[in-house]
Recover the amino acids of this structure.
């Protein structure tokens, strides 16, 4: 049985895969909670992940993938992880990354700041060393940068994976999972302006348990133009099975821009290809929005209630569920969304804690 | 929610209209639950003025994408509260709710009533509204996974009704035929057919009194089905017939046919009622194999007259029953009311075994001699476990004082103990498992019935507590069954089990001697055979004395002995076991000794019986004292009738003995006390028999002239008792020599017999043996 956990981080993303064979794959890291703010209901990601790793008696992740280098996907990562490239990011209490996954833009892009800069340094270091990294891109795109570092592309080709391929090192046979790369794909990557969202990682995961498939779309931030192209390219290559899904990781914190350029008044109408993609959800599918609470009000920033309405409708039409991280199980005390994957397909866990669990998890008010 | 209106749950009401404490509690609890949301309230008033309140919730169970059963991620339920303390009924309101296990059958197909708890009584005690709502959610979640059954759990019954109502005779269940019809007398424990239990009258009895009536029972086997296929409770025969037809059986033709067989019977022979016992083979999954056969019984709430009329065989003309020829096919009994009787089968050997975990124990033929306190309770244990085909021998009458410790109860006075055990076992396991012999074990060969019976037994259990009976049993080699003797010591603190090996290489009498040796060498068993002070007179005959002993002890020992007996029967070895009870903390300590092979040496008319344990002890004494000779006193006992001399134990050499390389003079220090202690410990069974000594390395066991002189001295000593004395010489290479004195009636005081024995090549020269390998 595999387990997927989405962490309630407001408009930020972190998703953990725990595979049946024990492998841990982390997609994005955003420890955005403000410890000084008692009203901040976002989870303390640093503590939560640490606790989980301790319980497993581990101090490493098999894979840490940063879908792109926006802050809401990498926030405070340099305080959590053991980074190879500089001693100041090293120490026993830090979590090691066995394999770092990044889109090419993280390596190539100039002008990165703060965490993005640190991530870039780490990625570049690992690529130079030639181990512990996988870069997603058309390989030639990295040729120039590699040259400037005195490395032949041929010597690093095995660490670069293009769209349309399966990620090496993860297989159904040994892990019960395979990951198909949708993006970055060639078309966009040749633009000279490297817009982060457009160069972001998009995977299609296929989990297999006892011969039963569960498919998941892992999307970071993206816009409908990209999704449409992913759909049309994949269709053209006759690989539509890579567009079917049982779990949909809703892009960009439920922004309407991932559906259409028009927000709409009550509901966003998705562009045809994206609509088609939404229809590829199997019955009783799950759609997860890693976002703040979605109200009935129109907002400029995501999550947009019109987009939510679109996704909700799609979910309902296939007896599925639309869930928001900061609303699960309720808005006053959000908890990580946990989905187990077995031979019955995915199950969204709905656990009601007994009083003793709640009581033991909180410090009692002062007495005396 | 128009759908809810169709279920007749009452009118809409508000929270302020709620009167039931439990409803209010449920509503409140739901507010703190994440996955249960309140929808609306319904209420209606019953005839007695109370308000039945229904709370409708939307429940979000945990449901996988591909559930085994079609449970949705949101289910509407109605919780019907009727009073303060009962578990509310829970109804799944979805119209197309699937047919799943663990639902209560109701006369309607929807809404489905969920069966949440296996133990309703315990659930009532522990009821908490929040937990209850979570239990409902859990029911859905587990049902979605098909996991409401654990794999080892029984499949759910066809019908979940209340307490069992019919105890069905075994032959209606365990039969190969698809249809069996028979008349049976059933007793009834209630006041009407609507209550109480119908039970078959015990096998060994004829029907007594007015309480039993003649029932006609039809036992029908249907085709196999997957469990859970039936979705509503049949109230009339027509419903039942419709439900069963898909299982390949038309009940109408079966009932008509059986009524045809009895319709012409005279009034006194007619059955009073008709019962249909349906055997429904079932599988856990459609493609699976048949898991077991379920039994559902249905009784027609109609008497004979109503039955034959409603099924078209007769009609009433001028107050009389008249046959209809041809049968009125239109009258098919469909309106006859039926009542489902939850059925269980009567007790029998098979059930006894499966419920006791003794299925794999072979069916031993056991003769129990002596059915007293221990014997009766021990046997009762085994009978309840379905073990054994029994013969009972005990002609003792049951008297009032027995009720303190015997299986018997008041009402049994005047029966022999064997008769009582026979009836008890026959009632449990069937007559064929029992034989009763009135008699006792005195001189086996003369009573041929007992002799023949014993010959066919696998195991002969002696619970007579009589040494004489025990010894007698040990003989008779034509009787091959292994003897096992069990008893408590006189003060009831210890239990003893003497058991022969299955080849009888060591017989009960030798085991008895080995038991004495054990007692003599275990200081804590010094008092084992002591007779307690207290006695109670029950009548004026001195044979009716009984000791004071509580049933708590007897029952416990009977339990231990029955368990140990089964183990011993299953194994092949022989031995001696003892158990001692500590009445401070009720702990029991066990002592176990493997049987030592016995050796019989003929000397003239007498046989001397020793065992390998005895030889081992004596030989090791010899070795310990080499190069000098050593010796001591022989302790043992006589069976004068059988002319047997048992050598049980030896004393060690007293401290003041003179031990030289080629001579030994036995001293006296502490010897008298040692012998007296042995006599005391064995309650007089064991006594002085003679002397033993060892020969040094290189010498044979042949008696020297000094040894013969010693023999004469022994003879003088024993003349006063009038019994033979024994001298034993232990030498190198496992050689030993036995000398008997005063053995023949008109003999000299010195006598040594010579015997040659083929083909084992052992030869006894004055009982000398050159190793017996």
């Amino acid at each position: 049985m595999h387990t997927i956990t989405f962490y309630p981080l407001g408009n930020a993303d972190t998703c953990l895969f725990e595979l049946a064979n024990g492998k841990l794959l982390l997609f994005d890291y955003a420890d955005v909670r403000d410890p000084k703010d008692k009203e901040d209901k976002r989870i303390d990601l640093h503590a939560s992940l640490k606790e989980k790793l301790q319980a497993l008696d581990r101090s490493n992740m098999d894979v840490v993938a940063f879908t792109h280098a926006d802050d809401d996907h990498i926030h405070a990562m340099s305080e959590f992880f053991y980074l190879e490239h500089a001693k100041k990011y090293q120490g026993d209490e830090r979590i090691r990354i066995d394999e770092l996954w990044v889109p090419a833009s993280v390596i190539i892009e100039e002008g990165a700041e703060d965490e993005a800069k640190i991530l870039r340094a780490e990625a570049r270091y690992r690529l130079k060393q030639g181990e512990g990294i996988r870069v997603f891109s058309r390989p030639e795109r990295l040729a120039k940068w590699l040259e400037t570092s005195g490395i032949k592309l041929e010597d690093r080709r095995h660490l670069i994976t293009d769209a349309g391929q399966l990620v090496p090192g993860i297989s159904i046979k040994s892990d019960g999972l395979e990951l198909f790369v949708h993006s970055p794909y060639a078309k966009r990557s040749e633009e000279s302006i490297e817009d982060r969202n457009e160069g972001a990682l998009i995977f299609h995961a296929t989990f297999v348990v006892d011969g039963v498939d569960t498919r998941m779309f892992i999307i970071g931030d993206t816009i409908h133009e990209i999704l449409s192209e992913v759909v049309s390219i994949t269709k053209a290559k006759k690989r539509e099975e890579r567009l079917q899904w049982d779990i949909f990781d809703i892009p960009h914190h439920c922004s309407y821009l991932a559906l259409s350029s028009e927000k709409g008044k009550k509901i966003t109408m998705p562009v045809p290809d994206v609509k088609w993609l939404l229809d590829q959800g199997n019955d009783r599918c799950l759609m997860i929005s890693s976002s703040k609470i979605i109200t009935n009000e129109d907002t400029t920033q995501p999550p947009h209630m019109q987009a939510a309405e679109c996704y909700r409708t799609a979910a309902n039409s296939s007896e599925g569920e639309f869930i928001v991280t900061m609303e699960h199980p309720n808005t006053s005390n959000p908890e990580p969304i946990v989905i187990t994957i077995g031979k019955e397909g995915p199950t969204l866990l709905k656990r009601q804690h007994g009083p003793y669990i709640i009581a033991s998890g909180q410090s009692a008010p002062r007495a005396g | 929610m128009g759908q809810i209106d169709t279920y007749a749950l009452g009118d809409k009401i508000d929270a302020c209209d709620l009167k039931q404490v439990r409803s209010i509690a449920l509503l409140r609890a739901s507010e703190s639950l994440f996955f249960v949301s309140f929808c609306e309230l319904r209420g209606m008033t019953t005839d007695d003025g109370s308000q039945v309140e229904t709370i409708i919730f939307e429940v979000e169970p945990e449901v996988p994408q591909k559930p085994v059963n079609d449970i949705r991620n949101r289910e509407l339920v109605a919780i019907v509260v009727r009073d303060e303390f009962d578990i509310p009924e829970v109804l799944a309101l979805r119209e197309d709710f699937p047919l799943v296990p663990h639902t209560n059958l109701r006369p309607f197909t929807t809404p489905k009533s969920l069966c949440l708890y296996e133990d309703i009584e315990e659930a009532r005690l522990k009821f908490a509204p929040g937990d209850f709502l979570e239990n409902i959610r859990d029911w859905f979640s587990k049902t979605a996974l098909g996991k409401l059954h654990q794999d080892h759990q029984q499949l759910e019954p066809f019908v979940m009704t209340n307490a069992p109502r019919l105890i069905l005779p075994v032959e209606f269940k365990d039969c190969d035929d698809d249809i069996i019809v028979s008349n049976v007398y059933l007793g009834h424990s209630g006041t009407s057919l609507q209550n109480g239990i119908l039970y078959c009258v015990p096998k060994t009895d004829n029907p007594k009194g007015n309480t039993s009536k003649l029932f006609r029972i039809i036992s029908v086997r249907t085709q196999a089905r997957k469990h859970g296929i039936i979705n509503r409770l049949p109230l009339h025969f027509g419903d039942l017939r419709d439900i069963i037809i898909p299982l390949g059986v038309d009940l109408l033709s079966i009932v008509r046919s059986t009524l045809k067989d009895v319709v012409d019977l005279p009034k006194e022979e007619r059955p009073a009622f008709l019962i249909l016992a349906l055997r429904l083979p079932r599988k856990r999954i459609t493609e699976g194999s048949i898991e077991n056969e379920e039994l559902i019984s249905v009784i027609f709430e109609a008497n004979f007259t109503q039955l034959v009329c409603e099924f078209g065989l007769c009609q009433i003309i001028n107050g009389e029953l008249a046959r209809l020829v041809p049968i009125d096919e239109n009258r098919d009994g469909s309106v006859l009311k039926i009542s489902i009787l939850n059925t269980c089968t009567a007790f029998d050997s098979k059930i006894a075994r499966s419920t006791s975990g003794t299925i794999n124990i072979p069916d031993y033929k056991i003769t129990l001699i002596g059915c007293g306190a221990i014997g009766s309770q021990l046997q009762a244990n085994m009978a309840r476990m379905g073990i054994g085909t029994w013969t009972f021998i005990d002609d003792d009458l049951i008297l009032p004082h027995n009720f303190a410790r015997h299986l018997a109860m008041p009402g049994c006075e005047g029966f022999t103990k064997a008769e009582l055990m026979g009836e008890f076992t026959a009632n449990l396991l069937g007559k064929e498992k029992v034989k009763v012999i009135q008699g006792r074990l005195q001189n086996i060969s003369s009573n041929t019935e007992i002799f023949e019976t014993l010959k066919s037994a696998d195991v002969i259990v002696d619970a007579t507590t009589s040494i004489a009976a025990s010894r007698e049993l040990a003989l008779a080699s034509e009787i091959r069954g292994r003897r096992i003797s069990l008893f408590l010591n006189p003060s009831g603190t210890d239990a003893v089990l003497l058991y022969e090996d299955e080849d009888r290489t060591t017989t009960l009498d030798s085991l008895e001697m080995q038991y004495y040796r054990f007692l003599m060498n275990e200081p804590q068993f010094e008092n084992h055979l002591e007779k307690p002070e207290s006695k109670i007179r029950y009548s004026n005959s001195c044979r009716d004395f009984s000791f004071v002993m509580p049933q708590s002890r007897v029952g416990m020992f009977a339990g231990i002995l029955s368990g140990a007996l089964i183990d011993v029967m299953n194994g092949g070895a022989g031995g001696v076991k003892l158990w001692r009870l500590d009445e401070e903390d009720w702990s029991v300590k066990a002592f176990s000794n493997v049987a030592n092979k016995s050796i019989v040496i003929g000397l003239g008319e007498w046989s001397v019986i020793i065992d390998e344990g005895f030889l081992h002890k004596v030989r090791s004494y010899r070795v310990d004292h080499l190069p000098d000779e050593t010796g001591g006193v022989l302790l043992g006992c006589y069976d004068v009738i059988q002319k047997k001399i048992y050598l049980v134990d030896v004393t060690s050499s007293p401290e003041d003995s003179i031990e030289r390389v080629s001579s030994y003079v036995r001293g006296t220090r502490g010897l008298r006390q040692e012998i007296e202690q042995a006599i005391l410990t064995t309650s007089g069974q064991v006594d002085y028999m003679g002397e033993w000594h060892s020969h040094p390395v290189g010498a044979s066991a042949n008696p020297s002239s000094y040894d013969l002189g010693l023999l004469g001295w022994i003879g003088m000593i024993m003349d006063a008792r009038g019994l033979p004395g024994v001298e034993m010489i232990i030498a190198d290479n496992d050689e030993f020599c036995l000398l008997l004195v005063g053995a023949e009636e008109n003999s000299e005081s010195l006598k040594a017999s010579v015997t040659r024995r083929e083909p084992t090549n052992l030869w006894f020269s004055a009982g000398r043996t050159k190793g017996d390998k």
